[in-house]
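Annex B. Sample input.
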Amino acid sequence: MNKYILIAIITLIFSKAYTQDVAILDAYKDSIISYSTEMVNSNDDKRKVELSNKISHIVFYITEQEKSINYDLSDLRLVKVLTSEDKKFRIFTWVIPFTDRTYAYKGITQSYNQYKKEFVSFKLTDKADRLGFAQNKTLDIKKWYGAYYYKIIDTKRGSKKFYTLLGWRGISRTVQSKIIEVVTVKSKGNITFGYNIFDIRNYEYFGKGNRSSKRLIFKFSTQGNMYLNYDYQTIIISSKSKSKSSYKKKKNYKTGFNAQSGPDKAKVKTKSIKDNMIVMDRLVPTSPQMKEFYEFYYPESNIIDALLWQKSKWKYYSDIDARNKTDVKENSDKKIEYNLVPK
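Annex B, continued. Sample output.
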């Protein structure tokens, strides 16, 4: 048989097999959409849990399929799917909104095992309520600070890769939160949550001098809507030039004495940084007496802070220029899909 004909036959066989696989995955995706929609709209908590379990089984099936990391799941809405740029990590998260306005957080990860040259999948177990001061803890799949993630950012420090996740977590009837989480994947595909890559020494919300945060958790009122996303923005940095005070002797010819002029004024220099960065509303209490009572925290009007990836850290910048401030304001006013508070 002509080798070109053989290649064509083999290509056709694999093409048909791939088409069949995609058709199956499409059917499962439709099921996820149907189950998640019913889960959110149901008034029966037991039924919600049953539907969530069905979603979990289907997601696991999808992640175990060869090359499923390339399968497009962007049209899923209530089950959020985030895939890293390097296609080595993917995470599925969703929320069960119970009728008493409490929540359960579910997640499944898909990560690359470098030794076996294949992907492995893990189910996440939310233990946020038992973690105490979670901001400084390194966690794993069995102790996950559960959240609904809506953005993933790839970064590197040398050869080490970090996946920064932006997410939401409802805490109570009066308090919700936004989260900046950091994921690292080990050689065998094992997942670790939390890493100290934040330079937030001057971030007043977390306490000045904080050097040990492994994730950032912003708590605020359920009546507010904090903007937290990854945008292209401008940071204007002002600094005074270092100059030694110089005194020039001037002779007063009437008195015969030498006089000294005042010190030279320091020159103010400015420079701008234009780049992609994490930008967020500044959260403040309604009064100083309400500090750390997070149901009284709201976004400060027209003040945007930022975290810029510099020298392998997310470095905090206060009150950035935000040349795209109009877009930020428009987005912050929109109803967020992941705030699944029952009506």
